[in-house]
Amino acid sequence: MVTILFLFWTLSSVFLTLNVFKPLAARRHASFPSILISYVCGWLVGDLLPQWILLNIGIVLLFSFSDIYSHPIGLGGLVVHLTGWCALILRLWIIFNLPERLDQKMEQQLGNNWKNTSANFDPPGSILDINWHSWFNPNIVFEDPRIEIIREQVFHQENDLQLKLDFYRPKGSKKLLPAILQIHGGAWISGSKRQAALLMTHMAVQGWACFSVVHRFSPDIVFPEHLIDIKHALQWIRNNAEEYGVDPDFIVVTGGSAGGHLASLMALTQNKPEFQPGFEKTDTSIQGCVSLYGVFDFSEPFNDNTPYPAKAKLLEIVCGGTPDSKPECYNQITPAYWISEETPPFLLVQGETDALIPVNETQTFFHALQSQNSQNSAMLSLPLVEHAFDIFPTLTAQCIVPTIERYLVMLHDNHINRTGGK
User: Fold this and answer.
1) 254 and which of 1, 290, 353, 394 could share a cystine (Cβ 3.0–4.6 Å)?
2) 354 catalytic per annotation
3) Among 380, 323, 393, which Cα is nearest to 354's?
């Protein structure tokens, strides 16, 4: 019995390790549960490696109470586990050295505009600089004494409906703050406004006002109601800008996954009356967008040559039908449909081993942006990085978030220079 358990544990570890480097559940033909399991396992094992190794050491010690390690099968299994840990540590070493590569990529795309920008939040330069405390205790980021967080602020109320946001800001600031509107992920059917806490808290420390908002979920609503909810949040932020010390002329939008998709639409559908029913005259302009592992393709999953049944089923819930039955909805929900010469700057960030969103989906959208000469836009593809890498302050997030911060600072510097400091 012990031998069977040991073999099961060893084979499971092999598959979990391989899944980090290449998701084992193919998007084509795979069911949603299998894709979700592949993603969750890849993220947990890859980004929570210290916890994973500690768990494995505990299991090794448990098996040491038997005689399994006195047999070749036990010793062989131990070698397999050690090899897997070394491979995962190598992945972390690659992530640890990622900031330098990201800096080079951004300089290639943005030139002197990027070189002349600096940020206060640096990625870890050595193993001693890694914030191990937050890696093991993610909630520690909410306890920074330099910021204050106002939670559960109602930004839209209609009958029994109440939509709320969390507001992060530096303590004691008396100047107008540039603002971030953050949209959580969750496939339009779930999510939490506590996502992206590392970015929100660190930007608040640097003197930004950060609003993390929610929207209603499908299947209770269908698109474009999700987008309209976020437009209401932007309306509330501008209406209350003076009270909260926010610069209403500089608001950027960020988001991950489905939130990255909605963030993109917020930037692309500025002041579109069809998405502002009852508040058509409200200014919903956005000065920039950072979309992390966002969703951009809404037609390919239904194509017989490129089937993605799990995504197609989800989109039918979100849109209330298929592209054949709801063509206008599928046009409206597709970000590329709205690209124009008025499109603000975009930063697109996508992991190359994302189990949920293929990197070529983001690349196609970026090429569409480039066709309209969208200035100060850039794309970063991240090797060995999984979906939702920024939800917790892991090493991956600590190495990538500083680049996002620097990009936001660059956009704000450009705004200041363009408006003469007003």
Assistant:
1) 290
2) yes
3) 380
- Centre a 10 Å sphere on the Cβ of residue 78 and count the other Cβ atoms it contains: 16
Q: pLDDT, tens digit, for every residue of 50-101?
A: 999 999 989 988 988 888 888 888 899 899 999 999 999 999 999 999 999 9
- Angle CA(252)–CA(278)–CA(176) in degrees, nearest 5? 30
Domains, in order of start, for the chain: 2-95 (no CATH), 108-297+334-419 (3.40.50.1820)
- Nearest Cα neighbor of 366 from 413, 312, 275, 297 is 297
Give me 353's structure tokens: 């081993």
Q: Is 367 annotated as catalytic?
A: no
Residue owning tokens 């989800």:
314
In this prediction the pTM is 0.94
| Catalytic annotation, pick one of 257, 264, 291, 374 | 257
Contacts of 154 (CB under 8 A, 6+ apart): 162, 163, 164
**Catalytic-residue membership of 103:** no
159 φ/ψ sector (left φ>0, alpha ψ -120 to 50, else beta): left
CB-based contacts of 230, cutoff 8 Å, min separation 6: 181, 183, 213, 215, 262, 266
Collapsing DSSP states into helix, strand and coil, what is residue 154? strand
Which residue matches tokens 């593809």?
381
Nearest-angstrom CA–CA distance, 155 and 143: 24
CA distance 304 to 286: 37
Q: Which of 229, 297, 354, 390 is catalytic?
A: 354
